[in-house]
């Protein structure tokens, strides 16, 4: 504060508007720095100019211990005050903090609680010292107290209420600042603890099932636990395994785990993507060719079946091969023998086959697009891999796993904020685990800070194009409407075909059909509206059927067990009519 303003404050009477200048200067000091101790010291200096203050102190309650501690002083030593050498009247201040009632002692000689404190006073014989102490608080319990000693010459008239009112306003400003600093400190501490916890999880991240071969498969959901169980049970056998699931669910990793957990682990693991090769090229890749078999065949070449002899052959996208090649593949699976392209010598091999597809093979068989005999030869031990939306609880773990791998590859030390992980967990991810990995890598690459926040995600900046996959041709709906929620893509429903492996319990409910005609005893019911969301169609069906699950299941084309899962999934309470 400038010298002229200080002089004006000293000379101002109690009814002057100049106390507002003091409030203004104090508010500027409190809002100009994040150093709370320095701000409180500057406030006491302003009070010293305005009140002719001899001594002043700010005492605060420590959030961790609930004990009073002197935070700032004026006119005395902070070190001596904290050590107790000055006998600061902490007992009197404690009463003010406990009761929230200001203390006013016009003459400190009349107050026993101040006796020891005054013994060291350096006051003059012809002056009287008064003691003010007001609670520092906002709306809750006091956060501390502000104490001031003011002196005047004997015989001088003084209105103490003006000083008390002024100090109460100052204490309120101080209380707001202290409260804000406490909140900032608490948020910072919470953020540091959260980051430390995430860092520890990322450093110690382990698969849910610590089994050799499954170390790189992250997930602890019930759906993945069933997959792990089926893999461990089927891997030691020679049975053909058919992996079913959407693209990006990790079928190749499961196939490799089957190989590692089998007796063939020391032999080769050969993989072929059937959808990436033309039929003629695929035949040469799988069976090999003789020299001169076709243009460009300048030497003899072994096929993937021969290379995988004694080991495991993984045929990805098996549902994409042509009808003519299906017959050739069927012979190999049945007889374990084949001829190279352009050759006549029969070659016998011992190969464990693991196939994978994201197609509905049962529908393809019904349409004549896939041979039924090959289907039965492949569908010995089916293992169904759940889409990521059906195991959203694994998303935080997978996200931290991918971020840890990004950090290792790029020499970074990045972490996720908790809101960011929650936002990822709410995402639809039509591309499943592969899309989640891309999302994490993209966010980590473009993030400028060490912590990836919710606003660093593409979906929060309207730059995520994956939503186009499910938004295309969808009618516009108001924000917050149930239909605005990303619809569950049609998951593969296990067919009622007998197999040697136990069928897993349904992890999720098939989508409710948009329009279904009632049958049997519900024949009089009208078809359900196709414009409603899945949850609304489910409620509509239950209401039409008098909340009888069996009838609603027939109306929707589901089983009673599936509709029970659907009601639980959407949080719909049964009505008792």
Automatic annotation (TrEMBL):
Gene3D superfamilies for the chain: 1.10.8.60, 3.30.450.40, Homeodomain-like (1.10.10.60), P-loop containing nucleotide triphosphate hydrolases (3.40.50.300)
Protein name: Nif-specific regulatory protein
InterPro entries, alphabetized: AAA+_ATPase, AAA_lid_NorR, GAF, GAF-like_dom_sf, Homeodomain-like_sf, HTH_Fis, Nif-specific_regulatory_prot, P-loop_NTPase
Region (Disordered) location: 497-518
Protein keywords: Activator, ATP-binding, DNA-binding, Nitrogen fixation, Nucleotide-binding, Transcription, Transcription regulation, Two-component regulatory system
SUPFAM superfamilies tied to this protein: GAF domain-like (SSF55781), Homeodomain-like (SSF46689), P-loop containing nucleoside triphosphate hydrolases (SSF52540)
One Gene Ontology term from the biological process aspect of the record: nitrogen fixation
Keyword DNA-binding attached: yes
Source organism per UniProt: Magnetospirillum aberrantis SpK
Gene: nifA
Domain Sigma-54 factor interaction, chain residue ranges per copy: 217-445
Complex and partners: Interacts with sigma-54.
């Amino acid at each position: 504060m400038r010298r002229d303003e200080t002089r004006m404050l000293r000379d101002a009477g109690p009814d002057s508007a100049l106390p507002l200048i003091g409030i203004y200067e104090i508010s500027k000091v409190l809002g100009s720095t994040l150093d709370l101790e320095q701000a409180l010291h500057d406030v006491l200096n302003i009070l010293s100019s305005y009140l002719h203050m001899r001594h002043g102190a700010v005492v605060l309650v420590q959030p961790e211990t609930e004990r009073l501690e002197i935070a700032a002083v004026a006119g005395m030593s902070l070190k001596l005050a904290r050590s107790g050498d000055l006998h600061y009247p902490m007992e009197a201040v404690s009463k003010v903090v406990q009761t929230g009632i200001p203390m006013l002692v016009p003459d400190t000689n009349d107050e026993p609680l101040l006796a020891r404190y005054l013994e060291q006073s350096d006051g003059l014989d012809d002056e009287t010292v008064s003691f003010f102490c007001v609670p520092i608080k906002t709306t809750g319990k006091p956060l501390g107290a502000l104490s001031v000693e003011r002196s005047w010459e004997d015989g001088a008239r003084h209105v103490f209420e003006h000083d008390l009112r002024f100090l109460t306003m100052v204490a309120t400003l101080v209380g707001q600042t202290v409260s804000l600093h406490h909140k900032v400190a608490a948020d910072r501490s919470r953020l540091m603890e959260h980051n430390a916890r995430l860092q520890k999880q990322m450093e110690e991240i382990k698969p849910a099932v610590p089994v050799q071969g499954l170390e790189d498969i992250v997930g602890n959901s019930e759906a993945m636990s069933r997959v792990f169980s089926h893999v461990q049970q089927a891997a030691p056998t020679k049975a053909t395994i058919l992996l079913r699931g959407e693209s990006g669910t990790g079928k190749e990793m499961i196939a490799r785990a089957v190989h590692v957990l089998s007796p063939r682990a020391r032999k080769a693991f050969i993989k072929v993507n059937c959808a990436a090769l033309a039929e003629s090229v695929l035949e040469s890749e799988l069976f090999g060719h003789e020299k001169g078999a076709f243009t460009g065949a300048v030497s003899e070449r072994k096929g993937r079946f021969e290379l995988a002899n004694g080991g495991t052959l993984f045929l990805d996208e098996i549902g994409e091969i042509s009808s003519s090649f299906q017959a050739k593949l069927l012979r190999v699976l049945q007889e374990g023998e084949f001829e190279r392209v352009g050759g006549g010598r029969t070659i016998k091999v011992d190969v464990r086959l693991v196939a994978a597809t994201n197609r509905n093979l049962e529908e393809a068989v019904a349409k004549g697009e896939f041979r039924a005999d090959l289907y039965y030869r492949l569908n010995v031990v089916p293992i169904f891999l759940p889409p990521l939306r059906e195991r959203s609880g694994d998303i935080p773990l997978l996200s931290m796993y991918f971020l840890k791998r990004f950090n290792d590859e790029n020499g970074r030390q990045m972490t996720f904020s908790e809101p960011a992980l929650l936002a990822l967990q709410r995402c639809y991810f039509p591309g499943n685990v592969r899309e989640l990995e891309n999302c994490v890598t993209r966010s980590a690459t473009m993030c400028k800070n060490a912590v990836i926040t919710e606003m660093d995600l593409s979906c929060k900046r309207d730059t995520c194009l994956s939503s186009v996959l499910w938004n295309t041709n969808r009618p516009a709906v108001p924000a917050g409407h149930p239909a605005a929620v990303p619809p569950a893509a049609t998951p593969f429903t296990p067919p009622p075909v007998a197999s040697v492996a136990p069928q897993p319990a349904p992890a999720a409910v098939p989508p409710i059909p948009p329009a279904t005609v009632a049958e049997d005893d519900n024949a009089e019911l009208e078809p359900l509206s196709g414009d409603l969301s899945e949850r609304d169609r489910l409620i509509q069906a239950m209401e039409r059927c008098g909340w009888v699950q069996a009838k609603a299941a027939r109306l929707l084309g589901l089983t009673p067990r599936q509709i029970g899962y659907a009601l639980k999934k959407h949080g719909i309470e049964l009505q008792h009519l």
